[in-house]
Design brief:
The protein is an all-alpha fold. Helix content is about 60%, strand content about 0%. The protein is elongated, with a radius of gyration of 16 Å.
């Protein structure tokens, strides 16, 4: 998966225009920063840069590092339906029992109804 080219202005317009690819990717980057799960200081620095300024100013080397980070997460699938998990949800897979947001919602709803 190639990352979307954007800067902070593009991100602002993406959210208004419903460009989910850019805003979902930015959410994923924010989650990486918050969860502090990256392997080394180079990755942390690049993700921090992308979090604050976007991807447009990345050098080819930085872009390759970002692609490597993304490749660890971009092929996750829901264990029930096999649908690809969007990047902005993939870091929550353990919390979601390996389910896409739809099936996690359904499972939680079913669990809540069993308690009643």
């Amino acid at each position: 998966m190639k990352y979307p080219p954007y800067d902070s202005d593009d991100l602002m317009f993406a959210e208004k225009d419903g460009n989910n690819w850019v805003s979902d990717f930015a959410d994923f980057i924010s989650q990486l920063v918050e969860q502090d799960i990256l392997e080394n200081s180079t990755e942390k620095g690049i993700v921090a840069h992308v979090n604050s300024k976007g991807t447009k100013l990345l050098s080819p080397k930085q872009g390759a590092v970002l692609d490597n980070i993304i490749s660890r997460y971009d092929d996750k699938e829901c264990k029930l339906c096999g649908a690809e998990i969007p990047l902005n949800e993939v870091l929550n897979l353990d919390e979601n029992d390996g389910l896409c947001s739809y099936h996690k919602y359904q499972a939680d709803k079913e669990e809540d109804s069993e308690k009643d």
